[in-house]
Specification:
The protein is mainly β and 70 residues long. 11% of the residues lie in helices and 66% in strands. Strands 1, 2, 3, 4 and 5 form a 5-stranded antiparallel beta sheet that branches. It is elongated and about 40 Å long.
């Protein structure tokens, strides 16, 4: 079963910028598991996400999770 969810613990909002702090990206895919602390920065305009930046504590783990190899 493939799953992916972002667990949020804190959110800061200022004008058109939203920052999600202390989040975790948790998922399972093709026998791989991911549990990565992360920060998301979103820019909103007209109630739509225009930009999304995600910063992971361990980018190599995230890259391996999404890679096609085993």
């Amino acid at each position: 079963e493939e799953t992916l969810r972002f667990c949020t613990s804190d959110v800061l909002v200022a004008d058109d910028r939203t920052i999600v702090l202390c989040g975790r990206l948790v998922g399972a895919r093709r026998g791989k598991h991911l549990d990565s602390p992360a920060v998301q920065v979103l820019t909103l305009r007209d109630q739509k996400i225009r930009d999304l930046w995600i910063f992971h504590q361990n980018q190599e783990q995230v890259d391996e999770f999404w890679s096609e190899g085993t």
